[in-house]
Specification:
The chain is α+β, with helices and mostly antiparallel strands and 84 residues long. It has a domain of 50 residues. The chain has a two-stranded parallel ribbon with strand order 1-2. Helix 2 links the parallel strand 1 and strand 2. It is flat and about 50 Å long.
Length: 84
């Protein structure tokens, strides 16, 4: 797959970063930046598994009214790999 090495235009930068939408109240947005390469990939898999378990626990607790209700939004996942 070809990799686009050109710099983003001013319009792209503005659209991606400056004109970002306002996060609604009660919404928690986050992004994951993951690393690969052998053991780091195994560590990443474990960390993502833990994150999914934690979000499941949050959903269960919210259904039982044990914690405040929040919307959790995974906005972006990016990663790297040592394989070229």
């Amino acid at each position: 797959m070809p990799f686009n090495r050109s710099e983003p235009s001013a319009g792209e930068i503005d659209r991606w970063f400056v004109q970002a939408s306002v996060v609604p109240e009660g919404t928690f947005e986050f992004a994951l930046v993951l690393g690969g390469t052998v053991s780091a990939g195994a560590y990443t898999a474990g960390a993502v598994d833990f994150l999914i378990e934690a979000l499941d626990c949050l959903a269960t607790a919210q259904q039982q009214d044990e914690v405040p209700r929040h919307t959790v939004l995974l906005k972006l996942i990016a990663g790297t790999s040592g394989v070229v």
